[in-house]
Design brief:
By secondary structure, this protein is an all-alpha fold. Helix content is 52%, strand content 2%. Strand 1 and strand 2 form a beta hairpin.
């Protein structure tokens, strides 16, 4: 009897207490997560063509907001623009280019003076070092000229993939799309393509931009993102492609 009673008591002790038919102490079964809301599908070829046709009609010859005189000053300006505004870079390069606007003159100016001229720009110490280093390479390896090769540009100090793409696009007319934060946002919002990284967006956009518009697509998308399709509150009422864009959270007139 003791043995049987002991087994019974042990079983009762091991069994979870119950309250209203629900075992106390057991975790409730997880509720199924709601399916994420599917975003809009990228626009098709006809709409893409119309989007860029409207950009072209509004601004046939778009230009960078950066001030430059030639491929070399463009290269320096783009290098300086990393993590800085174009307006801030322009203020610094007006002073800098007044003193030196060739690789040879920049080397003669020296890193200390370059640093002083651009100290209002973020990361100015590292950028001054890179400007001097890339200028030396241009003089020693390219006779002072900026190479029209994207690969050659990417090998220069301070010149990454995006900078090289901008330079070959503006200075040499190559149909590249250097994806910055504006192009990444606009591309995903319209959406022209859906991508999780800048590299993925570039890979997606490059083959689908209609051929007649590839030369200036980079600038149209940047300017659209900078002045209309802004990050916090896009100015949808002023948007020339509002009827073509599939962005769900369009803004209304104030």
């Amino acid at each position: 009897m003791k043995g049987a009673l002991g087994v019974t008591q042990a079983r009762r002790k091991a069994a979870p207490a119950r309250d209203g038919g629900v075992a106390i102490g057991k975790p409730a079964p997880p509720k199924p997560k709601p399916a994420p809301r599917a975003g809009p599908r990228p626009v098709g070829p006809k709409i893409r063509k119309e989007i860029f046709a409207r950009f072209a009609a509004a601004n046939p010859e778009p230009r960078s907001d950066l001030e430059y005189r030639d491929p070399y000053t463009l290269l320096v300006a783009v290098v300086l623009s990393a993590q800085a505004t174009d307006a801030g870079v322009n203020k610094a390069t007006r002073r800098l280019f007044a003193l030196a606007d060739t690789p040879e003159a920049m080397l003669a100016l020296g890193e200390d003076t370059v640093r002083e001229q651009i100290r209002t720009i973020g990361l100015y110490r590292a950028k001054a070092k890179n400007v001097i280093a890339l200028s030396r390479i241009l003089v020693e390896q390219y006779g002072g000229a900026v190479p029209p090769s994207r690969a050659a540009l990417e090998a220069l100090p301070g010149v990454g993939k995006k900078t090289a793409a901008v330079v070959v696009n503006i200075a040499f007319g190559e149909a590249t799309i250097a994806v910055d934060t504006h192009i990444f946002r606009v591309g995903n919002r319209i959406p022209l393509a859906i991508a999780k990284t800048a590299d993925a967006m570039e890979a997606a956009l490059t083959p689908i931009v209609p051929a007649p518009y590839r030369r200036h697509a980079h600038h149209w998308l940047i300017l659209h993102g900078r002045y209309i399709c802004k990050a916090r509150k896009p100015d949808c009422p002023r948007c020339p492609i509002i009827d073509l864009c599939r962005y769900r959270d369009k803004t209304s007139p104030a």
